[in-house]
Amino acid sequence: MGPAPGDEPRRAEELARSLLAEALPRRWAHTQGVARRVRELAPLLGSDTDLVETAAWLHDIGYSPGLVDTGLHSLDGARFLRYGAISERLDTRTVNEDATRKDSGCHGTSCAEASQPAPGRPRGNLSSAFPIAVPGLVAHHTYARFEAEERGLQNLLDTEFSLTAIKPELLAALTVADLTTSPNGLTVAPNMRLAEISARYPFDHPVSRAIRRAKPEALDMCAHLYREHRSLRAPPHGPSDPPPKTTGGRFSPRTSAR
Question: Strand pairing partners for 187?
């Protein structure tokens, strides 16, 4: 008997907890915040709320030391969800260093402990565990296409997870939830979130380059959502962080590095 319909968010939460809570506690706190943020977008998402919340719980599982393969966390997480396994290629030293840097907190355990790969790599057939759209949302969330280009993985990302098969409004909602949630799971202005991500990496790191390229479109998209759906709770802005200006247009941007 298959999974009960409508139970996907709970099962996604359980899977994300198993992959992130102990190894990367700050990443887990962020994930919980993004899922809460998506639920706040329910007036916009309607019947698709459970689908996007499921993707929110799973959007960062590619950071889990046991799943890292290409180094593009969105692609690694999506591959695990679709295929239930990852390839045998794994540079443990690089995985450990990246996991420690990206978690940037290691609450509840030392950074050294948090960066150790999980005993054995999680495997199993997950292709029927979640809606077919979930891996695609995970693969392309938060302008992943920019980081994919910077890492030379754009063709691989597009081949395995076609962006044209994803509803742009659902991807945009997931991306906004991610961009308005801090590493600790708190609601934050998107420009502050983007600055925080960039500060964790050297200037010429693929993530830093991707963030600089994505920033104008990301701020514009967030502003569109909160301008066109005023009933939604907008994120706070600091004293020097006025709401970003928009260039007009509908809330369904071409979204697809965090």
Answer: 181
